[in-house]
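ugh ok fine here u go
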Amino acid sequence: MDWQFNPNHPHLSHYPCRAKHPEALPDLDTSLKTIGEYQRRLWANREKALLLVVHGPDASGKDSLIRTLATYMDPAGFHAWSFSRPTGTETRHDFLWRVTPFLPAFGEVSAFNRSHHEAVIAERAWPVWHSGPGELEGRYTSLRQFEQHLAREGTCILKVWLHTSEQEHEKRLRKRLNKPHKRWKFDPSDIEGWQRRDELLGYAEEAIAATHIPEAPWHIIPADNKPEARAIVAGLLADTLQTLAPEYPAGDEAVLSRYRQLLDDS
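structure:
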């Protein structure tokens, strides 16, 4: 199944919030084990990097998705970072500055819970947004060029949007309010996001369409059912890692022979 965004259908309402054929989805545990194996091969080779960008409305399952994907990954080569509203020093730099130090090094996988794309989605709804003539289009251009540069230099970018229905969104926000073990995640901005849901989804649609490029395509993931969403994204990540690091690096046979000789002589 192809979950890539289709520029001919730019509105999120065209995409399902639940998988139409859940029985055909990749097996989650198989994908997670594949991720673990090929993430270690990526780490061993240190030639390519992978950046996973996860976006979606509040309570769309971003945190739990990233936790699940990390199940079998070696923590030495995996990092997860979360980006909320820019504050302090971040506001005194260009909008790409704050994510740059957290990009994956060669051999690493990094997951961004929200990302540099917030600058053209949520930030447009905040009072700090000052959109002068051409500023929005300028940011779209910067985002495309930034990701093209990363891809050219060896970082593969996998971008997913967790697509939830209005009904499921409301249900999950109520859980945050009513269940003590989820209440810690509640933030007053969640309510503002709910009140401005249609506006924010409109910004997201525009941003996805403007930054969907061959080097870093978007994938629209039906996310009303969290296990289904995890299975889909895990399958995408497993397939991507297999293309980046198909084999472990070959050893230097002269060095290996020397070690064998030393062990035999001990």
